[in-house]
Amino acid sequence: MKNILKTFALSLLFISAFSCKKDSDKNEKETVTKKPVAENYNISILLDLSDRISLEKNPNPTMEYYQRDLGYIKSVSDAFTQHLKSKRIRQIDDKMQLFFNPEPKDPEINSISQKLKIAIDKNNASKDLLNSINSNYAARTSKIYESALEDNNFIGSDIWSFFDTKVKDQCIETGDRNILVILTDGYMYYDSTIMKEANRTTFITPDFIRKNGLNTKDWEKKFQNGDFGFIRAGDDLSKLEVLVLGINPAKSNPYEEKVIKAYWTKWFSEMKVKHFEIKNADLPSNMEKIIRDFIVQNH
Fold first, then answer.
1. Partners of residue 41 on adjacent β-strands
2. Is there a single domain that holds both residue 97 and residue 180?
3. CATH number of residue 195's parent domain
4. Kind and range of the H or E run holding 45
5. Same domain membership, residue 112 and residue 235
6. Which PROSITE patterns match (predicted)?
């Protein structure tokens, strides 16, 4: 009788162990099956090379604004590289590019910007290439700012027109995670793109804010009731995420920052931008985590 019970107990242990192994295998297979496919990133950087970076007009003893831009670009490049290194080689099919609008007249700047359009896939991805992205981006973007500052002839930045004519074609790839990083002080103005429809415009300047009475504590009521804002430049940007860095409101109006952010928020919302954040100019060390979180962790 003891032998029969012993044999029965061993049989139960075997069945239990086999059942646990099957459940374990099943769970493991389910985990593997449910693991998400690595996303392909398509990152675009739009530089505002207007007089906001001028050392004479907008000096900053703590850190010049062009140096802050370079720090932000480094953080974007770091996040892009971090993303690439998290993928298997065969999964890599990612892009990073840099834009101006309008294109600077300096042919050297345009030549450098072409070299900053990076497309990496399984055919050209290598450890050396991935490790060189950050240093190459830093060196080349630095040359762009040096040239713009040396020329000292700031033609402005036509951000509105960029959204109107170029964003869909140049910054959005089907199936990719499309991210546009804009480096700007938040103001918009370009001589060749001045349009006004009632209280909607293609521009916003400190003078415009002041003349339209958006510099008082009642600015929000006036903004909403008067339907102030940017003219829409596109109807469906639901495949685009936008990170605006460098907002630098005039200090003469305590409401300036809120007005600028209200303009951009209303514009992006009406164009159905998938996700966006609008951040003030700050030291690159303070912005690094914000940029990394937006690019790497915001899924």
1. 177
2. yes
3. 3.40.50
4. strand 41-47
5. yes
6. PROKAR_LIPOPROTEIN (PS51257)
Please tell me the pTM assigned to this model. Answer: 0.86
Q: Which residues of the chain have pLDDT under 70?
A: 1-37, 298-299
Per residue, the 3-state secondary structure of 156-207, as one string, reads CECHHHHHHHCHHHHHCCCCCEEEEEEECCCCEECCCCCCEECCEECCECHH
- State which residues form the domain around 233: 40-297
What is the C-alpha separation between 83 and 92, in angstroms, rounded? 10
Please tell me the distance from the alpha carbon of residue 33 to that of residue 151, in angstroms, as a whole number.
Answer: 56
Our measurement of the distance from residue 129's CA atom to the centroid of its chain's CA atoms, rounded to an integer in Å, reads 22
Pair 179, 157 in one domain: yes
- 8 Å CB contact between 137 and 129: no
pLDDT in tens, 241-254: 999 999 999 999 99
Judge if 170 and 259 occupy the same domain: yes
Distances 218 to 113, 222, 258, 260 between C-alpha atoms, Å: 44, 6, 12, 15
* pLDDT, tens digit (0-9, with 9 covering 90-100), for 223-278: 999 999 999 998 899 999 999 999 999 999 999 999 999 999 999 999 999 999 99
Does 96 lie in the same domain as 21?
A: no
In the prediction, which pLDDT does 37 show?
A: 57
